[in-house]
Every structure is written in C-alpha cells, then in structure tokens.
Specification:
Low-confidence stretches: 1-19, 204-219, 231-235, 329-337, 484-567, 1271-1330
Largest sheet: 9 strands, mixed
Keywords: Signal
Number of strands: 65
Helix content: 10-25%
Radius of gyration: 37 Å
Strand order of the largest sheet: 43-44-49-50-47-46-45-48-51
Protein name: LTD domain-containing protein
Number of helices: 25
Distance between the termini: 40 Å
InterPro entries: Endo/exonu/phosph_ase_sf (IPR036691), ExeM-like (IPR047971), Lamin_tail_dom (IPR001322)
Length: 1330
C-alpha cells in the first residue's frame, strides 16, 4: 500500500459536460499571443486526470470572418502521435517565432491568427465533433480584432492568459471574453509578454496532505503511458499518520536493456541510489532536474565509427540514466536525435570543401603548416572529421594529447564530447607542444551565465560572478606551438648541449643535425645569419650553423624542408597521359587519362591546367583544375572527366564531372606538381595562341571540334610538345580521329605491350620491389622476368564462408595473390556483368537493412555491418563490354542467363584487391563456375487469387518519340535512343503487362506527354488492346495544363479495364495542394473505381516519390543519410501529406477502401512507410503475404528490397487475397533490356528477346482483390453446403461461433473469407456473434 500512497501526487478532478469528450480529459485554451513579427502562439492545457490523444482533437479556424456563417474554413490537426498529459500544456507557435517561444513549442504552424480570426478547440472528427473552447467565433468578421475584457479590438498586439480560476473550456466566446476585466475569463498582458508560456496553473482546492499521511482514496489504477498511476481520483480521506517506508537501495543504474525489468516494479516506490555521477545540469535552474549516470558518458561517435557494432553497443548502454527532478511539472520537449545529428552531410561537404580550398593556398602563402580550429559540430569518428583525417591527412591533436575517450569541451543531454577541434596538417603537427581544453564552461550550470531570465531577484545576484566560469557553453581550446627558425637547405650544427624540452612529444635525437638538399637545390637566398669556417654567404656548403640558434631551436629541427627545388619530378613508375578526348554534340564532352605505369597515381599531385580561347598571358595557364580529393588512378586504368550533363553512356564510366570542358578552341595540359612547382607531361592544344575554331590535328583543319580523338596504342607516354603530338598527317600523328559522338572506346584504353610472354604453369624469377600499393601487396618496379621452367599449379585455399566487414581484413589480406576456391555462393548483383565482366557474390541473401530493422536500432547497425563485405567475381579483363560475356559457361545470352539469387559452385581463381574490393579473377585452366538456378525465372505472372487484379508497373522511361512528346534525339528523352530501340522496349513492356490482365494498372516512369493520340500512355493502351481485344484498356485522364502531370519529364499514369471497373472520381496531389508535398516528388494520382460486378468502390493511389540519389540539402534543408538515403524527410513529408489528403476523400467518393501503390523510394522501416503504417493505419501487404525479410522488387549494389509498395487501408486489407512481385526484372542482367549500346552486333541479337524479362529494372507488384457484393442490411440466406477450400491462411484464433438465425448482415461479410476463392463468395454471409 505504501507504493500506492506515494503515487497520490495530483488530484485534479474537473468535470466537462460534453457527452462525447472523455470524462477525465479536460482541455482548454490557456494562453494566446499575437505579438510583433512572427511571435504568435496558442497554448492548450489539460486540466483532466487522463492523457489526451490529440489525434482526436483539432483547432478549426476561420480567417477574417467565415465564408459561411457558423462554419469553420480550415480543420487544423495536431502532429501525428501527439499526446497531452494531465497538468501539461501543448504549445502551437509560428516556426519563426522568438527562440524563447520555440524552446517550449510542441508544434509549429504558419497560419496562426493575426488577431481578427476565429479559432475553436474541437473534439472528434470533421464529420462529427463538439466544440469545447473558443477564441473568437465563426459568426462575424471582427474587423481589426475581437473585443475582450472591456477593451476594444484587443486580440491584436496582445498576450492573453487564462485566469487560474478557470478549470474548463468555454465554447461561448461572448461569455468567455466578458465585458469587463472582472467577468472576463482572461488576463490581458502587453505585446510580447511571454513569461507564462509553457506552463499553466489552475486553482484546485483538495485539502492539505503531508508526507507521513495515512488515508483512503477512491480512484482507478491504470497503466498510463507505461507508468502505473492512480487516475480519475474521486475522493481523498485523511485517516491519520504512519511512518514512511524504507527506501529501496539501487546500487547501480540499469542500461536500456535492463531498465524495464529493474525499474518498472519500483515505480512509485521510494528509492535510494549509491553514489552517482552528474552528467548533465542543463535544466537544473530551468526545470529543477539533473541527469545522473553510473559513470562518464562520452558521445559514442567520438569513440567508435557510427556504423560499427561497438558504437551500437555503447549507444545502447549509455542512453539509460536517471533524472533527478524537483517534482515540479513543466514542459520542454527535445527533438529526436540520430547517431550523428542532423545536417551531417552539410558538415561533411563543408570540411571537404575546406580541405580542397586550403590545398590551393588561398592566403597567398605557400606554407602547408595549417591549424584548423573552432566548432565543427562533429565528433571524432563522424564523417566531417574523418574527411579531414583520411582524405587530407590532418591529425586530431586533442586525441593525440588527451585522448578522444576522455576529452570534452561540451556537454549535451548528459553526454560529453568535443565539438571544438584542433586539427593540424601533417607538416605542422610535429611543432605542436600541447592541446588542452580549459574546463571553465561546459561542466558548469547554465544558470551561472549572464542571463537574468528565469531567475528571481536574489538569484540574479547569487548565481553571478565576474569570473570566467560559464562565460560560454563551450570550453576554450588552447594550443601550444613551437616553430623552428628558418634554416638553409644544408646544415650540420656545431655540437652543442641541448636542454630538455618540457613536452609530451618524443624529443629529437641528440647530436649533430644534417639537412641535405637534392642535386640542383640552391640556398644562396637564405644565408643571412649563418656562419661557418668560410664561404657560406656565396654558395651552399655542407656544414653551417645559425648564429642565433638555441638549444631548443635545434631540438625542433626534425624535418628537412627543402626550398627552391627545380621543376617537380614525376614518380618513375607513374606514367599518365591523355588517352581520349571528345567534343561532341550538346554537352557530350570528356577527357580521358590513362596510367601506363606500374604504380598507382595519387591524382592529388596532378592537375589539368587550361586556357580558354587563347591565353591571357602567352605561355601561362588561366585555370588550375584539380582532381576530386582522394582520387587514385591505378595502372592500366583510365580516369574520365566529363560534363555533368553528358549522355548517360558517357556518365556511366565517368569518374569526375566538370562543366568547363573544351569547346575545341581551348588548351589543356596534364601537369604533375603544384601551381608553384610543376612539370607538364602531356597536352591537347597549347598556351601560346588562339587557334580560332579549333586546333589542326593529323593533317585535318580545326578538327578538335565535333570530334572524338583516341590515342594510338603505340603511344605509351605523354607528349607535352603539342606540335609533335598532333603531327601533320594521319601517320605521324599520335591520335586516331573518330566522328562526332563516337564513344565506343571511352572508359578503357589499350597500349601495345612488349613485355615477356608467360603462360600458366611457368616457373619464373621476377626482379622488382614488394610494396603495399593502395592496400594490395604488389610487386612493382619490375626490372626483369625470367622463365625458368614449368611447375604444377598450387592447390587452392578453400574459403568455406565469405567474411564480414569485421573479419575481411584479417582473413583475406594474407590470401592476396593466392589461388582460392569458394564453397557454394549466391550471386547478389550482376549489374556490371556484361559491362565489365564482374558479379558480386555473397554467402546468402542480402536484404536492405532498413527493410528488416529500424534504422536507428542496434540490430540494423549489426546487420549493416555484416552484409557489406562480399567478393567480386571478375573476368581478369580490364576492357569493357566483353564479347562473349564471360559468365555463365561459354557466355551469357537471353536464354543462357544468370540471375541474382542463383548459386555458383566451383568458383576458383587468384584473389586480388582493387577499388576497395576483394576480387576473384577468372583464370584459364580451371573449370568455369557452375550455375544452379536457385532463383529460376517465372514464365507466367503469380496467381494472386481475387476477382480483380491491381498492378503497379515501372515502365523504365517509356518515351515513344515526338508528337506530342520529345524526339528520341532530344536531351529530355530518358528512354530509347531511336525508333529501333523503342520498338524493342514496347514489345517487352506489352509482353509484361498483358498477361497480368489487371483491372487497374498504375504506370510509373512514363513520358509526361498527356493522354491523347500519340502520347506514351495511349501508345501502351493501343498496344494492349491490340494484344488482347479492342477497348480492353483505356487511360484515366486528368484535367491539367497541356495534359501534363507535374513538371518532370516522366510522370505517373493509370489505365483500367472499363468492362471490370468504372471511374467514380479522380484527384491529384502536388505542392499546390499541400506545400509539404514537394514538387521534386512526381504528383500522386488517386482514382476511385467501382467494381462493375459488385458495385463496391475502392481508391487506387499511384506514387513515385523523390529518389534516394541526389541531395535535398540545398532545396529542402533535408540532411543526407547513409542508412536511409538522401531526401528521407522529403519523402516522409510527402507520405504524411498524402495520408492527410486521402482522409479528405479528394476523389469525391466516401469510401475508405484505399490501396497505395507505386515506388515510394523507401523501405519498410524507414519513416515514409512507417508514417503511413503507424500514424494512419495502413498495412504493408507485401510484408503480410510474403514477409519483408525475403521480398524484393529491386536490386541495388547487391542488396535486395522492395521500393515498390502495396499499402492497404484497414478497411480494404481484409479484401486483399494476395500480393506478390512478378520476378521478371530486378534479378535479370541489364544487358538483356532493349538497349543496343555497349553490345556487339551479335550481342544485339543474342541478348534480346521480345519476352517480359528485363522489361524494366523494377519488378511489377500484383495485388489480388475480392470485393463483397453490395447487399441490403438484413437477409436470411438459403441454407447451403460449402465445399472445403484449400488455403494456406492460418485459422482465426477465436472462441466465437457464427449463427444465421435472426442475424444482421454485414455489407462486407464476404471479406471474412477473403483469399479463399470460390464461387460461394458471390452470395451474402450473415452471422451473429456469440
């Protein structure tokens, strides 16, 4: 009983008469502000004893007087899932209100009152509700504002606070506003007085109780929001005194995994803690609360990589702490947080831009000694910091001196970290003596700062001091620096005794120091102050000492900094040159660079300086163009720089995009070194003259325009002499001239090889150097290869399971270059099989992690970590577009196929490492991998039962040529390149749609050229009608400008069979309907159909939301994400807007039977889908019938998932008999589609078939639907005997029985048996529950 008494902390019982409002929920407006600028808010208070689900409430409004007297104009709802607890307030404010308002705001809303509007508080739905409170009314336009408390037009420039004597709402505005200050329910405050916002008090007389009280009570024990509470208290009687119970001793605070088990039984009990650490005092003075933990809590991403298992485990452990509160309720909601916070991509891009910018020496100095300081708003292992460390070589000096595990300069929500950094370049770090934070701010309570808000008069004095503590919320970072004196190139200091330097850095070795200069170096400009035994002032000498040198100065001379070196020297084994150049139609421009050397080239040491239309200064470049940070060019590989809007065939092999490529009359060179110190190794054009239209080459005039140039295979090195390179004839020119837009060689380059020929089984002696080159052990700088004889091949190493990310380095690195054999493996990606001869192999099925687990869960992090490591099966051929395609068997054709999900056995070959991937190379002399079709083709559509079939088809950029659309040659065309390709695409598309025989088909990625004659939609309809019967299909048309759905080149469309269904109404959702639905989503189409046979109506909603590719940071302030792709917020807002829109019945039909289909570009556990499921009650029907763990309609980078959905409303889901993907596209290789690019003449035939396989890149989703007949309310059915129906559905676990005696029929009675099939369902079913 002691626990129960301890729970009697609130006893506010207020009665509202409104019949439909829950008895113990009593909401009313407690505060209203119409202030300066955007300082507007509305506060709602719960004076009841139960929490209010705000999904049942609304704040309907009229603006400047009603359109129809007494009727609201806007039905404004609360944020989905919002709850208002007893004694709490809920604040709705303008999104640009002052921060003091936003600090206590629960929901933002733009269209708050300007003082002359009416707003009411309503409980219920739009169709059935009751008003419980009002500010203004819906009867008149008040003019400037409403009169209140005897003051004229005083709802403008005002703050109104409900009197403490008011304990319930008042829908009678005249009574509420009164006529004087006395009979008014409000207290009037001046404009911008917000001291009460966020909390509200009411006067409730309940008697006085004390801590040792003993008594009885009347009420109800209830689990209220996971806390056991005594609610609906009707009486409290004081009976006497009793001793307080002994506290329960809690010796250690539980983790998240154990808190439920340990703490829930202790709710309401008196507890005592063992000594604990205070980890957050942020809200101590504001709300009287502190965060307590058992120990130090660093931010997890400061200690571990955010995608690592260790990060997930640490994140899980430290999040459960206890809050020490002062038992004084107030409200201050905090936003949700992800692992690395919002805008991580913005910060990453910023640090990357900074790192690149600093490499250009923007201050004009050539020094590379750089120190980056300040608040980067990122922790050590987050990508903004890791970009600077891994890509640009900076060192985290805080971690170096004090360790990231224990260092901090900022505390937030009980977690300590350093957002304030000191990152040093590799050249400067050795000169830093110490880095430390001065701990004067972050650990101090914020009430000790200068602010006077939220403090009593005495606290303004007692909490303040002029000292440094809490001068900010971040601790200052202090760095010690000791730079050496400027020294000449060569010096051997005279022997000297050096005093030790106080530093944690290792001291330099004592003794003589000698700095040497490469041959050709000079030092004559740096001799002042240096003395020797003679001659130092005129030339370099071997031994010099600076006259002002000190012991400490000499101790810092740890690096030989050489000044004045002649032209940069290219590494001997790196040989780069221009291998291809194109200046074609439109934006089809590119520059290809080839590495003919034996070592990889770090392109950070290279550049492509240019002049435009002739140089400004003869011989001098105008633009120093650098490569993408971190770019590397491996031996035998090419690097392509192309215009960002070039043809997709070019972009498919592009490494870097650049807008200002040559128009044919520019000069470009390939340079090694820096701007200040570089050497040219190749050229196209020169920096000496303006060539006019273009440069002469190979004896042809002005032929660097509308041309493709490919370097001859005999050329093995660059030539900076442009005149020699371009020659005067085709014979003495180093280039081969091809016509405009001939790109068959881009992405690969061949050179003649005169090296020693070896064959399998040769025993060889190789002279060279063993080197770890880009993480692969290689033999480089080979100077000799001798064949000594023959030897048997080694036995392969058997790898029985592919390693995960955590184990790959340990397991695979020792096997590099060795012959290995795999146990049977699954093919998980064939995207580049025909393009580059490679496939991705895995030990098993790899679903996208966010389809199986919540992206912020520990399980998601673990799964994400496991599935990322796979092996690549490669064909050991660096060329592109192999013919035949190397796998399966003798070569892939349409019929000799391999699909993702198939199994390979006998995979044997040497293990290599390139492009951050481990690869098994195809090797002659070993059996080819054998294919087992464990994911065979489905020749016919799946049987989804039902009387109707609904289908969603992505038709992969179905563009049928001009009139009325765009021509095949138009750059806006995203589909077939010509009429021949389109004819093939059309046949494949029709062969996929026709056999499904769907009553309604949603089409995605179809050309946005209307619905009329010649349109892409009508073309599909015509083709289907020709393949089936005349008038079988017809399109749903929409009344839109130019017949176009939105502004994108592609759109959604709907076609249907009028013999099966008829159109009842249609509607379109775009940004003009709801700004939350951004225009970068294709407009959503909703059409209500009526089934001809049953008379029932249902609504099909077709979508194609923003992709996960390009960023939405710039357009929409939506941060990029690793786990859920870019633009997740844009898609979430879109699905929320869609669900709200559908609740308004936009098609004009009142049916709630809704089916959402199409490409939502989101997986099951991502917020766009969870919004529809959790907030609006839709059901993922793919998961229901086939499970999210094994279902897919799309494959990307070896990961399978379904972006294409079938989500049913709660009323429709029972009428769905089956949902399945027809697996004809996603698992097939892309070379089997209609395109002819990248295929030989024979492959154009052998890889193509008119059948449905690879008609798109997404699988169609097919839904079976069985709607009940529309029946009268009552019927006594004829007795009938029903044959048993075979079904895989589990029986309903229920003790209910059915009886048709005197029962009322349900109109949808047949839905009880949906999915069973059979003609008996055409009758009516009546039942009575027992």
């Amino acid at each position: 009983m002691a626990s129960a008494f301890l729970r009697l902390t609130v006893a506010a019982v207020i009665g509202v008469d409104a019949a439909t409002v829950p008895a113990n929920v009593k909401l009313f407006f407690s505060e209203y502000a119409e202030g300066s600028g955007y300082n507007k808010y509305l506060e709602i208070y719960n004076a009841g004893t139960e929490s209010a689900n705000l999904g049942d409430w609304a704040t309907p409004t009229v603006s400047n007087g009603p359109t129809t007297l007494g009727v609201y104009e806007f039905w404004n709802i609360f944020t989905a899932g919002a709850v208002l607890e007893p004694g709490k307030v809920y604040v709705i404010a303008h999104g640009s209100a002052a921060q003091k308002i936003l600090d206590v705001t629960n929901q933002t809303y733009t269209y708050l009152s300007n003082g002359d509007d009416g707003v009411k508080l309503a409980y219920g739905t739009e169709a059935d509700h009751v008003y419980v409170d009002a500010i203004g009314d819906f009867q008149a336009d008040p003019g400037t504002g409403w009169d209140i408390c005897g003051e004229v037009a005083r709802t403008v420039d005002i703050t109104l606070v409900r009197k403490t004597s008011v304990t319930a709402g008042n829908p009678d505005w005249d009574a509420s506003r009164g006529t004087t200050a006395d009979n008014c329910e409000w207290v009037v405050y001046p404009k911008d007085e917000w001291k009460y916002v966020g909390v509200h008090q009411v006067v409730v007389l309940k008697g006085v109780v004390t801590a040792d009280l003993q008594g009885t009570y009347g009420g109800m024990v209830k689990e209220n929001y996971e806390e056991t509470q005594l609610v609906a208290v009707s009486a409290v009687d004081v009976c006497g005194k009793a001793p307080l119970p002994m506290p329960y001793f809690l010796d250690i605070l539980p983790t998240r995994n154990t808190s439920k088990t340990i703490l829930e039984p202790l709710e309401g009990m008196l507890i005592m803690l063992s000594p604990v650490m205070v980890t957050d005092t942020y809200n101590l003075a504001r709300y009287g609360e502190m965060t307590l933990s058992s120990g130090w809590n660093p931010v997890a991403s400061q200690v571990f990589d955010p995608v690592s298992k260790e990060h997930a485990e640490m994140y899980d452990l430290y999040r459960d702490t206890l809050m020490l509160d002062d038992a004084n309720p107030s409200q201050n909601p905090d936003p949700d947080s992800t692992f690395v916070g919002n805008c991580n991509g913005v910060r990453t891009n910023a640090t990357k831009a900074m790192g690149k910018w600093l490499k250009t020496h923007p201050t004009g100095s050539t020094t590379d000694d750089i120190l980056i300081i300040g608040d980067l708003n990122a922790h050590h292992y987050e990508t903004p910091i890791q970009t600077l460390i891994t890509e640009f070589g900076y060192v985290d000096m805080i971690d170096k001196f004090t360790s990231k595990e224990t260092s901090s300069s900022y505390v937030y929500k009980g977690l300590a970290s350093y957002l304030d950094h000191a990152l040093a370049s590799s050249t400067l770090m050795r000169n830093i003596t110490m880095v430390m934070a001065w701990k004067i701010n972050a650990d101090e309570n914020r009430a000790l700062d200068y602010n006077t808000e939220y403090k009593s008069a005495s606290q303004v004095t007692s909490l303040y001091n002029d000292g440094p503590f809490r001068s900010s919320d971040h601790d200052p970072i202090i760095i010690g620096l000791y730079l050496p004196l400027v020294v000449p190139e060569q010096v051997t200091p005279v022997g000297t005794t050096m005093a030790p330097v106080a530093t944690t850095m290792a001291p330099a070795v004592n003794g003589a120091y000698e700095i040497t200069v490469p041959e050709g170096g000079g030092c004559s400009d740096y001799k002042q102050g240096w003395v020797t035994d003679g001659g130092c002032s005129n030339e370099c000498v071997s031994k010099c000492t600076h006259s002002q040198a000190t012991d400490r100065t000499l101790n810092r001379l740890t690096v030989a900094a050489v000044i004045g070196v002649d032209a940069a020297t290219v590494p001997a084994n790196v040989k780069l040159f221009f291998s291809e150049y194109a200046e074609g139609s439109g934006y089809n421009k590119y520059l290809e660079i080839y590495n003919a050397g034996t070592e990889s080239a770090n392109l950070g040491d290279w550049a492509t300086p240019t002049v435009s239309n002739g140089p400004t200064t003869l011989g001098v470049y105008e633009f120093w163009n650098i490569f993408t940070a971190g770019a590397v060019l491996e031996p035998g590989k090419v690097y392509v720089i192309a215009h960002g809007s070039a043809a997709q065939k070019i972009l498919d092999v592009t490494n870097q995009t650049y807008t200002y490529l040559s128009n044919g009359d520019d000069g470009v060179k390939l340079a090694y070194g820096t701007e200040a110190d570089h050497v040219y190794v190749d050229a196209i054009g020169d920096f000496q003259a303006d060539p006019g239209t273009g440069w002469d080459i190979c004896g042809e005039v002005a032929r660097t325009v509308d041309i493709t140039l490919v370097r001859k295979t005999s050329v093995t090195a660059g030539n900076p002499d442009w005149d020699a390179s371009r020659g005067t004839t085709a014979d003495n020119c180093e280039w081969v001239v091809y016509p405009k837009d001939e790109w068959k060689y881009v992405g690969v380059h061949q050179v003649a090889d005169g090296s020693v020929v070896v064959s399998q089984g040769d025993l060889v002696v190789v002279r060279g150097m063993v080197k770890e080159n880009y993480e692969e052990t290689q033999l480089v700088a080979v100077s000799a290869v001798d064949v000594c004889g023959k030897a048997p091949l080694p036995m392969p190493y058997f790898l029985d399971i592919l390693p995960t990310r955590n184990t790959s380095k340990t397991i695979l690195e020792p096997l590099e270059g060795m012959l290995i054999m795999l146990s049977p493996v699954m093919v998980t990606d064939t995207y580049n099989l025909a393009r580059y001869g490679e496939m991705t192999l895995s030990s098993g099925w790899n679903p996208v992690a966010s389809q199986v687990f919540d992206p912020v869960s520990k399980e998601h992090a673990e799964m994400y970590d496991l599935y990322r490591d796979t092996l690549m099966l490669d064909d050991a051929n660096p060329s592109q577009n192999p013919d035949p395609v190397p796998y399966p068997g003798t070569g892939m054709t349409y019929d000799n196929y391999i699909r993702t999900g198939d199994t390979l056995t006998n995979v044997t070959g040497p293990l290599s490492y390139a492009f951050s991937l481990y690869k098994i190379q195809k090797t002659p002399g070993f059996p080819a991998p054998a294919v087992q079709h464990t994911n065979p083709r489905e020749e016919t559509p799946p049987d989804v039962k039902g009387r109707l079939r609904i289908a969603g088809f992505n038709v992969l950029n179905y563009f049928n040529g001009d009139n009325p659309g765009v021509a095949f040659s138009d750059r806006l065309n995203r589909g077939a390149s010509n009429a021949d390709e389109f004819a093939k695409q059309r046949k494949k598309t029709l062969s996929a749609i026709a056999p499904v025989d769907a009553a309604v088909v949603g089409l995605l990625e179809i050309e946005n050229d209307g619905f009329g004659l010649g349109s892409a939609v009508q073309d599909i309809v015509d083709g289907l009608n020709a393949a089936t019967a005349p008038l079988t299909y017809t399109p749903v048309t929409f009344n839109v400008a130019d017949g176009k759905i939105g502004t994108d080149a592609i759109a959604n469309a709907i076609i249907y069979q009028p013999m099966l269904v008829s159109v009842v109404g249609r509607a379109m959702l775009d940004s003009s309907v709801d700004p939350m639905f951004r225009s970068i989503n294709r407009p959503t189409l909703a059409v209500t159909f009526k089934e001809v046979s049953s008379g029932n109506e249902f609504t099909v909603v077709v979508n194609h939301l923003k992709s996960k590719g390009s960023s939405c940071v710039a357009c929409c302030a939506d941060p990029d994400s690793t786990f859920v792709g870019n633009c997740n917020g844009v898609r979430t807002n879109a699905t929320k807007a869609m669900a709200k829109w559908l609740k308004t019945h936009p098609t004009g039909s009142t049916t709630d039977d809704i089916l959402i289909i199409g490409d939502l570009n989101a997986h099951h556990y991502e917020t766009p889908i969870q919004t529809l499921i959790a907030e609006f009650g839709y059901m993922d029907m793919i998961d229901k019938f086939t499970s999210k763990e094994t279902s897919s309609s799309y494959v990307y980078k070896g990961l399978a998932s379904y972006l294409d959905h079938a989500l049913a409303s709660s009323t429709l889901m029972r009428n769905i008999t089956m949902v399945m993907a027809w697996k004809i596209n996603a698992d097939e290789n892309r070379a089997l589609d209609y395109n002819t690019e990248y295929k030989s003449a024979s492959q154009v035939t052998s890889l193509y078939n008119d059948g449905p396989f690879r008609s798109s890149d997404h699988d169609p989703i097919i839904i079976g639907l069985y709607l009940p007949l529309v029946v009268p309310e009552q019927v006594t059915p004829v007795a009938t005997t029903m044959a048993p129906v075979a079904t895989t559905m589990a029986p309903v676990a229920s003790t209910r029985s059915y009886d048709n005696g005197g029962a009322s029929c349900r109109n949808d009675g047949a839905s009880l048996f949906s999915g069973l099939g059979g003609s008996f369902l055409s009758g009516r079913i009546c039942f009575r529950l027992r």
